[in-house]
Amino acid sequence: MPLNEYGDALSVCNKCRCGYCNNECPIFQQYKFESMSPRGKNFLASAILRKELGQSNHLAESLYRCTLCGSCKVACPPQVDTPSIVKALRSDLVENGLVPKAIHDVLTNTLRYGNPWGENPAKRSRWGQELHVKSFNDCAPSSILYFVGCTSAYDTRAQEIAKSMVRVFNKAEVDFGTLGNEEKCCGSPILEIGEKGLYEKIATENIESFRKHRVNNIVTTSPHCYDAFTNDYPELSENPGVQHYTQFVAELIDQGKIKMSRSLRKKVVYHDPCVLGRRNSIYEAPRKILESIPGITLLEMDKTKENSYCCGGGGGMMWTRELFGERPSTNRAKQARDLEPDIVATSCPFCLINLEDGMKVIGMDDRIQVKDILELVSEAL
């Protein structure tokens, strides 16, 4: 929605001024500048609506330090939707060409190459060559389309998630395929950056691709792809067969199609990704999977489930490291360290990469491993 439609919500925030959102915002906790807090962004939005403040590069730097994690909305007594207000502000910045260079590069890469990493689209399927992953063209319409996602396709660390997913599919004798080099970005980071025109182009192309290939069932690696397909693609509302892999694997366990027999004997703390948890309320499936792995002792941090602490990768911020002095993942790594786990487990490629970086920053990467749940399942099979 355009910014002017949030006038009533902004009026509530201006009258309340409680600041509960600031207490939960990982970016504000890092910088301590009001302009980078949720409350501060709402004040800026109100000033823009009153025409007391104009668009500027300085405003853009503040708005593009928000991960849209949603912790502010959970903490807000009247439930002011600050993430949506920030997205409306970003859309105006994009229209006026006032975005930081890193954001501009993400948009350009996605337009040119079909992914925000700027990688060659002809190399998108290389991660699965040794595993002989077949094309969805060779599958029946009732089969699973495994939507790998940009990060798991190109990032060498996150590729281990995709490889583990293939092992699980094969172990459960699931007929699946991928779109290979035809797969493109889901568009989630583009929408959150505020480039609606490019997002609509991506969404339209993906819908046409799904229809061409007669796709009925989709399993995604990334919570961001899952969120895009279930919440942002109205054309997929006719198709209920979209699942994040944690939902799919939890069902395989319930159905007895996979059994994990190898004991890992590890203390594992689970980190809830913001988009999977807070935005889509998927909390139990990941924990069910972890509790099904023999030998795992599952630990919980203080900030968990709807109160989980953001890794810093959402809202398009995965590609804007220079805008941060230090990512929120450093603080999250410290929170995990205090429980003395062997492993921090998560279920999002962004979280995996950022939390590994966080462990390196605090000097704990040689003592605490960061792994995706799929990697643990693969090890236990």
Notable traits:
4-stranded parallel β-sheet; single chain; about 375 residues; alpha/beta; Fumarate Reductase Iron-sulfur Protein, Chain B, domain 2; Rossmann fold
How does this model look, in words?
The protein is α/β, with parallel strands linked by helices. The chain has three domains: 3-99, Fumarate Reductase Iron-sulfur Protein, Chain B, domain 2 (Orthogonal Bundle), CATH 1.10.1060; 103-251, Rossmann fold (3-Layer(aba) Sandwich); 258-380, Rossmann fold, CATH 3.40.50. It has 18 helices and eight strands. The chain has helices spanning 7-16, 20-24, 26-31, 38-49, 57-63, 71-75, 82-95, 101-113, 150-154, 159-171, 188-193, 196-212, 223-232, 245-254, 284-292, 328-337, 349-361, 373-380, and strands spanning 144-147, 176-177, 217-220, 242-244, 266-270, 296-299, 343-346, 369-372. The strands form two sheets. The protein has a four-stranded parallel sheet with strand order 2-1-3-4. Strands 6-5-7-8 form a four-stranded parallel sheet, with helices on both faces. The termini are far apart. The model has no long low-confidence stretch (mean pLDDT 93).
